Amino acid sequence: MVVPAVRVAPSAANRALGLLRTVQYTHPPNCPCHSNPNHHHHHRSTSLADNVRRHLASPVDASRQKEYAFEMAASSIRFGPGVTKEVGMDFKNLGVNRVCIVTDQNVAKLDAMKQAVEGLSREGIEFTVFDKVRVEPKDSSYSRVKEAIAFAKPYNPDAYLAVGGGSVIDTAKLMNLYTAYPEADFLDFVNAPLGKGLPVDKKLKPLVAVPTTAGTGSETTGTAIFDLVSKKAKTGVAHRNLKPTLGICDPLNTRTMPSAVHASSGLDVLCHSLESWTAIPFNERIPRPTNPINRPAYQGANPISDIFSLQALRSTVKYLPRAVKDPDDYEAQSQMLLAATLAGVGFGNAGVHLCHGMSYPISSQNPGYKHAGYAVDHTIVPHGVSVAITAPAVFRFTAASNPDRHLAAAEAFGVDISNIKRESAGEVLGEAITEFLIKLGDQPRGLKALGFKESDIDGLVEGTIPQKRVLMLAPTLSEELEAEKQELRKLLEQSMEY
Q: Which residues form the Alcohol dehydrogenase iron-type/glycerol dehydrogenase GldA domain (predicted)?
């Protein structure tokens, strides 16, 4: 008697294994990988089916899964002399009736502000002005930002207009964020581990940014930085939904920058470019997000950010010395504003790492330094200065991770790399940066020149450790805490003098 065959439906796992076997053993023979007998696919150590079995047999540690994708996000940018006057039409086109203008008391007196106000008035748009932003904001519990948020809430604007440098634009981003989340605790969105690092899961109101300095690139990014003195460290909020709707980059607005501000702002561009160019590759970052909304703004170097970062570096090396030397060099000033925007797109998606991570405690733990050329009534280590001061040591340290990239960066400084060995990449790039800083002039040559002592290094290390968002992108930096502290300590020691 013949027993009729009974067809059993295959399980999902068996179906997957069968499909993978089919793909594996019917792979076209003209595939370049499989036609190469030395390719790893020809070694029988593991097969696709083996991998499937292994993953079915043991749970995957999601915290150790590497990223597999990158995402590009940047503000719309309008660039050209005189475009500030178009801002009123932009808000009209957006259907905006009430605007909160954010600026500082210096910029409030400049032509950029005049052009913005006239543009809004021509279109009949109601506005109010908050002009109490502080340059390089520093206040315990960040009361200035809280004051700005408190100012915006009752006015309830339809949109925001930021006219000023990075501190102004960042303050406007935070005003926009916390008025959209009126019940949120201030630390809810602040970067972990100092805050909860919650994602911004709603669309914010339109924000138009008009930069008056050529440095931060804040007009392109979803990052807002501030100083949390209670923790002796700078921190911030970072999410794509914070980025301005439009950045209006008008070279006429940077003509009033003093030479010292040109230099500091340009050094920020220099380090934005170098750090994003040398950051870990996006597909080496962990953990892989479980939801796209959790994919960080700072993702690691990727093929698109690389284009912006390297071009910004080349432009900065070429034009920054000219912009600092001659305030009437309109071409140099214009090119530096463009370089700042290009760098913003690059680092806004790839991220920065050690120079910026260490710069935050350097600025916030300032022992009493006041940078010449800054018209402020308080001590100040300008952001670009605090970033660049560790750059020679940093890139000597990171070069082993990718010598070719570090040599390409050295070439952007004018170094002939044709006969340089890859193992010398760090020393060559470090020397090129040092020479550039010295020739630029009027720069403090190390932490000692800022007033720091060897005894301050431990405090600077402790202020750097919370900068997890950027340190995780630093190549060659140890993941083990004590080893990481030792590496940071050594970098700071090497940065005492150059």
A: 75-251
Contact 364, 233 (CB under 8 A): yes
pLDDT tens digits in sequence order for the chain, 498 residues long: 444 444 444 455 455 444 444 334 334 444 333 333 333 333 444 444 444 444 455 567 777 899 999 999 999 999 999 999 999 999 999 999 999 999 999 999 999 999 999 999 999 999 999 999 987 644 444 677 889 999 999 999 999 999 999 999 999 999 999 999 999 998 999 988 889 999 999 999 999 999 999 999 999 999 998 877 666 667 889 999 999 999 999 999 999 899 999 999 999 999 999 999 999 999 999 999 999 999 999 999 999 999 999 999 999 999 999 999 998 999 999 999 999 999 999 999 999 999 999 999 999 899 999 999 887 888 999 999 999 999 999 999 999 999 999 999 999 999 999 999 999 999 999 999 999 999 999 999 999 999 999 999 999 999 999 999 899 999 999 999 999 999 999 999 999 999
Same domain, 392 and 243: no
In a shared domain, residues 209 and 266: no
Does one domain contain both 143 and 179?
yes
Whether 150 is in a domain gets the answer yes
- Position 222 in a domain: yes
Q: Is 366 contained in some domain?
A: yes
Q: Which residue has the tokens 């109601």?
A: 126
Token pair, residue 309, equals 């970062």
Q: Is 17 exposed, middle or buried (0-12, 13-18, 19+ CB in 10 A)?
A: middle
**Is the distance from CB of 246 to CB of 78 less than 8 angstroms?**
yes
Domain count for the chain, please give it.
2
- Interstrand relation of 223-228 and 233-238 (parallel, antiparallel or unpaired): antiparallel
Domain range holding 242?
Answer: 76-249
Residues 221 and 304 in one domain: no
Residue 191 lies in a domain: yes
211: part of which helix (H) or strand (E)?
A: strand 207-211
| Calpha distance 481→463 (Å, rounded) | 14
CB 486 within 8 A of CB 380: no
Whether residue 213 is found in the same domain as residue 282? no
| HSE of 380, CA atoms in CB hemisphere, 13 A | 19
Q: Which of 216, 249, 282 is the last residue of a domain?
A: 249
Same domain (yes/no): 85, 194: yes
Distance CA 415, CA 449 (A): 28
Please choose, from the candidates 294, 280, 240, 297, the residue with its C-alpha nearest in 3D space to the C-alpha of residue 472. 280
